[in-house]
Amino acid sequence: MFKFIRITVLLLILLGVAASAWRSQRTSVQWKYALPVNLYPINGDGSAASDAYIRSLTREDFSPIEAFMQEEAARYGRGAMASIEIRLGKPVDALPPATPSDRNALNVILWSLQMRWWAYRHGETRGSNTQVKLYLLYFDPARHPQLAHSTALQKGLMGRVNVFASPIMAKQNNVIIAHEFLHTLGATDKYVLATNQPLFPEGYAEPNLSPRLPQQFAEIMGGRTPLTATESETPDSLRKALIGAKTAQEINWQAAQK
């Protein structure tokens, strides 16, 4: 009897968490108010360089992400409330669960549950439950010239984002952060994983451009600016990125075209 009661209580708790996540997920793209986006810096490699860089961070370092969302919302005819409010939280000392190397369905589900439980215990928020949590793992570029892919969860509105601890890379970091933030709202990747080449047409910022290549901007979920049929480059800032029509549909900025 005791085992049955314990399992029942656990199931009720899981149902409550799932219902809360579903409500937050729906509310996040209703755009009735500015969506809070909480950023929590983490020393990803334990280096002195990353620690010093984290201590130098201010909220203004991330304001281009707010400006990008506001400008793109206006381009799609959305009101002033279709915006975000960046909040820079206190650094977090613990590392979030690492993403599984074998990404089969079971491992991904288990990691997702672990990540949500970890996020519940790290990073305070204020106000509404509908808020995004992005954990920014900083790495010294002198020791880590390449970083692993970042990951974000729509169910739970949270992300684990790998970025460089360097002021030279700050603007490009914001491109990565904006990309992962949009994942939390339901935006999908629009590039070929094996090559990182943007998919045509949804991964192109201006698919109707003539001539088509080279493109001048990157579609934010395409991740890179197509230059030739086989070459592309990461934009150096959000000033070189746009939200494409498919992504706008996914985050409820534009109705799906029939």
Explained architecture:
Helix content is 34%, strand content 16%. The protein has a five-stranded mixed beta sheet with strand order 2-1-3-5-4, with helices on both faces. A two-stranded parallel ribbon has the order 6-9. Strands 7-8 form a two-stranded antiparallel ribbon. It folds into two domains: 155 residues, Collagenase (Catalytic Domain), CATH 3.40.390; 70 residues, no CATH class. It has six helices and nine strands; from the N terminus they run αβααβαβββαββββα. The protein is globular and about 70 Å long. The longest helix has 27 residues. The model has no long low-confidence stretch (mean pLDDT 89). The protein is an alpha/beta fold and 258 residues long.
Largest sheet: 5 strands, mixed
Counting DSSP E segments of at least 2 residues, the number of strands comes to 9
Under CATH at level 1, the class of the largest domain stands as Alpha Beta
Q: Beta-strand percentage? A: 15-25%
**Helical content (DSSP H or I, runs of 4+):** 25-40%
Enumerate the spans where pLDDT stays under 50 for 5 or more consecutive residues: none
Quick one: overall form?
A: globular
At CATH's second level, what is the architecture of the largest domain?
Answer: 3-Layer(aba) Sandwich
Adjacency order of strands in the biggest sheet: 2-1-3-5-4
In total, how many domains does the architecture comprise? Answer: 2
Question: Quick gist of this model?
Answer:
The protein folds into 2 domains: 30-184, Collagenase (Catalytic Domain); 189-258, no CATH class. Strand 4 (151-153) and strand 5 (158-164) form a beta hairpin. It has 258 residues and is an alpha/beta fold.
